[in-house]
Amino acid sequence: MEQWQGYIGLILQGAVVTIEITIMGCIVALIAAFIAGLGRLSRFWLVRWMATAYIEFFRGTSIFVQLFWAYFVLPLLGVPLSPLQAGVIALGLNIGAYGAEVVRGAIKSIPREQYEACTALNLTRFQEMRHVILPQAVVRMLPTFGNNSIELLKGTAVVSLISLSDMTFQAQVVRAQTGSTAVPFLTILLLYFLFSSTISTVIKRLERHLSRGLDGTGT
Amino acid sequence: MEWDWEFSIQILPQLWEGVKVTIQATILGTMIAMTLGLLLAIARRSANEWISRPVGVFAELIRGTPLLVQLYFLFYVLPDLGLLLSPLTAGVLGLGLHYSTYTAEVYRTGIDAIPKGQWEASKATNLSANQTWTHIIIPQAIPPMIPALANYFVAMFKETPLLAAITVLELMNQARSVANYHYKYVEPMTMVGLFFLAVSVPSVILLRKLEARFAPSNS
Q: Fewest C-beta atoms under 10 Å: which of A12, A212, B144, B171?
């Protein structure tokens, strides 16, 4: 039993790493999603083109391929990355590409009258986005963003393959040391499930909170 | 860093071996995901709570945890329980099982979209549950689902590199072994990325066409 406590401690250490990578990845993803999502709606074709290229590039391959490329190829091209940096950047940019489409879709779903009203009130394009369009669009983005962050959480398991000691990595260590397979893997499966349930609960709360006072979102 | 053309051509045959396994895994995985997903969707709609509840929890659990960990589970835990699976079998099962929970959602929304009158008419004409499903509901529900299902087909194809983690010799693993052997990472890793892009970018275009064809009422 005491021996198991040590192993559980190891897995919990991994859980902390998994949470850290998830949070940092989500931040990168959020920034990338807004830049690329707004970029796709830009008036300038070059910006639109670049945003599209980024989105299709990162959606066209899996996190696994991107992570290995970032970790093994980029250093040879003169961009040395630590496993943590490679993991956070690859995960963030990958999920960010999916998020960009969400941002674009949500902004486009805002009815035309809202834009017309902004023109009528003589708001600048920045004011229009900041005060009228985005506050409404963000609420519509939230449910899908929730799913995206769960995908990111699940994606973090892949960083164990570039020797980052996340939860999956620690489970493998425990397996190698004890020869027991069911206990470590069942433990981390439950922990991952706990984390993803937490994310969806938090997103639901946030959705309720943000949609307060908005028209037609039915709360 | 120079791109070595001679080396890239020299490794093509070995990468091709990997491509074959990748395609095989995708097709087998899709077959499992499509059939199992339908069974899950039907079971979740069952009037018997002892069936619908556990199936729902099971699906949530699979969807909330990483595919990589599930693959490890199948690959390491099942042999301890006396079920020895080859790496490819475990990989295909894991892939199929994971994505069946996603396809189940597609089926569920598709089935929910069938008007109530169809169910009532089936009852009125005294069709059995089995006949209702096979002759009335499924034939109407499937066509609108095709784009979403095709989307998961492409997603599974992109995720096959994960099977490398349980020693399946698919494209990513072949590339990794070539890279380790020659200690040259740029060419093999980049070629894997390009291969996936070369398949998934055209399939995105194809998917949009499918969407336009099968879901005209939705926009």
A: A212
